[in-house]
Write a structure and sequence with these properties.
Elements lengths: L17 H11 L4 H14 L3 H8 L7 H5 L1 H13 L5 H30 L3 H29 L3 H31 L1
Helix pairs in contact: 1-7, 2-6, 5-6, 5-8, 6-7, 7-8
């Protein structure tokens, strides 16, 4: 018998820490249900056509498009913060451009996420809306960081970028949970 986990099997829950309890509470909470019912028809339109759905769901690669696209905004935003450690004008210009790249790349990443969300079960959708809210908030904060930098207020831009890291990391943890949940179940 193969030692590989089949997609129909679930890993045993071995951890019962605060994070795991939070995830279970999010999955069971009905707080998002009204919003889920309101946006689900729009999300379903994204995947209404089979060829488009196959691209979003990663049928050819085995990896959903959203999981691939997240590397661009995350990478841009965190590289910008790395460059913020340097005070030279070249690093400042590059970090400003990276903030803009991250904000622009967040749009197709979010669309791909909504397409993936459309095929999820209710518990996953609940966590998904929390994930989308956190990453949406982060995108707004990183966009404000870019705007401050363009206006010449690099110090404010740096502070906003650091602030934006908090919801983007929290959202990434939830996104990781969603991805592992979908692969396992």
């Amino acid at each position: 018998m193969s030692e590989t986990l089949r997609s129909t099997e679930r890993l045993p829950v071995t951890a019962d820490n605060a994070y795991q309890r939070l995830l279970r509470r999010l999955e069971r909470s009905t707080t998002w249900d009204g919003a889920i019912d309101a946006v689900a028809p729009v999300a379903h339109r994204l995947i209404a056509q089979a060829p488009v759905r196959r691209v979003f769901h990663g049928d050819a690669t085995g990896v959903p498009l959203h999981g691939i696209l997240t590397d661009v905004p995350f990478g841009a935003w965190f590289m910008a913060q790395f460059l913020d450690l340097f005070r030279d004008d070249g690093s400042r210009r590059a970090s400003t451009r990276l903030m803009a790249l991250g904000a622009a790349a967040a749009v197709p990443t979010a669309v791909a996420g909504w397409a993936e969300w459309a095929g999820a079960d209710r518990a996953t959708r609940r966590v998904g809306l929390t994930h989308a809210s956190l990453t949406g908030l982060a995108t707004l904060v990183f966009t404000a960081s870019w705007a401050a930098r363009v206006r010449g207020d690099h110090r404010l831009g740096i502070a906003l970028a650091r602030l934006g890291s908090v919801p983007v990391i929290a959202g990434a943890f939830l996104g990781g949970h969603i991805g592992s949940r979908r692969r396992l179940g």
